[in-house]
Amino acid sequence: MNIAETLDELKRKAGKAPELKSRILQTRKEANPLSAFCVLCRELGYQVYEMDLACAGESFYAEIKRSTNGGGENSPLLKGEDDFYEMFFAELEREL
Description:
The chain is mainly alpha-helical. The chain is built from five helices and no strands.
């Protein structure tokens, strides 16, 4: 399972379990929120590490751009468009 699939699964589970959603959101209040989130993910059985999460969005975005128009796409990156971590929390918080 890749990072995007893992985050989707976590979102689905959090949507059905308010206590899990609360635990996930609580990681945002830690001194190092990204690290706290990854630790929680591993406690839940998902092998999510900081560097993997940071690189996943960038890699995904690059693949999308290379697949467009024969790889000649060079449109600018929109702010946060490649940040799976931030997008995960934006979607999770939107469901409050």
